Amino acid sequence: MTESYDCTECKESLFGLKYILKETNPYCVKCYDDLFSNNCEVCQKVIGCTSKDLSYKGRHWHSECFLCIKCSQSLVDRPFATKDELLMCVECYSSEYSSKCHSCLKTIMPGSKKMEHKGNSWHKNCFTCNRCQQPIGTRSFIQKDANNYCMPCYEKQFRALRCTPITTVGVNYHDQPWHKECFVCIGCKQQLAGQRFTSRDDFAYCLDCFCNLFAKKCASCTTPISGIGGTKYISFEQRQWHTDCFNCKGCSASLVGRGFLTCKDDILCPECVTDF
């Protein structure tokens, strides 16, 4: 005599019917869907056990409902992105939210290298010197009249390498004589005679321009860390802080010389960690 084989939930016989085992317990299709199947984010209908259930961050879709919110193309087996929990194909996301190149005006695709300066973005190969047309990359440059120039081209186009004969009091820099009014910061054109300044790639900068162009930024106050004159700073995992800014996010106590922990972008003393 054959032993009866019934649904664990409704107790109906499963003889000759499709059923699903869950943790060794048999369920008829209806009971299994009622108890365990997920609802689709788009149509809100049950994703039955006979349908493909696509999930992402705790949400679920029928395969036919897993579409780009903009162009309605299927995202099954395709890369996608999310914005405000809405699904988009990479093309629509890039067109809608990615930066546009300041030079060619085309979208800078996610994951591609871009250059940024004063709120504008460029493709790496579009960020070129206006004079020699060569990519600037990570080299020093000067922006003038909305155009970018590498330092050698800027020097050739806008500054004389040597002053004309000097009959008044002048300045000697790198064994070259300069009129006092000609020896200026390459960035802001402030006269440097009698002022503190520094140099990079044989070009002279006032301290403000040097810091804005080359200094690392404090992770807390975001202002430059000059390092000039023995300025001390804290460095940890590719981030830097002024010593006065290296404080606990919770209680604001200084963490200089103390143990600390990190929570996302924040630094915390051990006492405040439990509050975050």
From TrEMBL:
<keyword id="KW-0539">Nucleus</keyword>
<feature type="domain" description="LIM zinc-binding">
    <location>
        <begin position="216"/>
        <end position="276"/>
    </location>
</feature>
<dbReference type="GO" id="GO:0005634">
    <property type="term" value="C:nucleus"/>
</dbReference>
<feature type="domain" description="LIM zinc-binding">
    <location>
        <begin position="38"/>
        <end position="98"/>
    </location>
</feature>
<keyword id="KW-0479">Metal-binding</keyword>
<protein>
    <recommendedName>
        <fullName>LIM zinc-binding domain-containing protein</fullName>
    </recommendedName>
</protein>
<dbReference type="Pfam" id="PF00412">
    <property type="entry name" value="LIM"/>
</dbReference>
<dbReference type="InterPro" id="IPR056807">
    <property type="entry name" value="LIM_FHL1/2/3/5_N"/>
</dbReference>
<keyword id="KW-0677">Repeat</keyword>
<keyword id="KW-0863">Zinc-finger</keyword>
<dbReference type="Pfam" id="PF25076">
    <property type="entry name" value="LIM_FHL2-3_N"/>
</dbReference>
<keyword id="KW-0862">Zinc</keyword>
<dbReference type="GO" id="GO:0030018">
    <property type="term" value="C:Z disc"/>
</dbReference>
<keyword id="KW-0440">LIM domain</keyword>
<dbReference type="InterPro" id="IPR001781">
    <property type="entry name" value="Znf_LIM"/>
</dbReference>
<feature type="domain" description="LIM zinc-binding">
    <location>
        <begin position="99"/>
        <end position="160"/>
    </location>
</feature>
<dbReference type="GO" id="GO:0003712">
    <property type="term" value="F:transcription coregulator activity"/>
</dbReference>
<dbReference type="GO" id="GO:0008270">
    <property type="term" value="F:zinc ion binding"/>
</dbReference>
